[in-house]
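Entry under discussion copied across for reference:
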Amino acid sequence: MVQHPEFIHIVENPKPGYKLEVGIGYPFIDWAPIPNFFGFGPGKFDWAVKTFSFLLRDNNEVRCDMDFVAGARPKKVFDFGEFIPESAVWNRRPPAVYDTWRV
C-alpha cells in the first residue's frame, strides 16, 4: 500500500444535504508483505486502488462509501509455489510425486 496526497481530499458542502466530504484512497502494488498460500488478496493483484468517502449529512449522520478496483484477475485460488501446482490441489487423486514426500 502506498499513500499519496493526491488520494486525500476534503470538500465542504459537496452536494445538497451534506456538510462535508472527506475522501482517502490508496493504490496497491504487486508485493505481498506477509507470505501466504492464497492466489488472491493483498500483493496478488497486478494493481489495485481502494477509496473511502466519508460524508457528513446535514442531520449529522455519517455515510461511508468504499470503492475497490483491481486490474487483471488473480490466476489462481491458492499459491503453494512451484512444488504443488494448483491443478493438483483440486484433483481427487494426488500425483505419484506426493508418495515420496516425508514430513
Helices lie at 86-90.
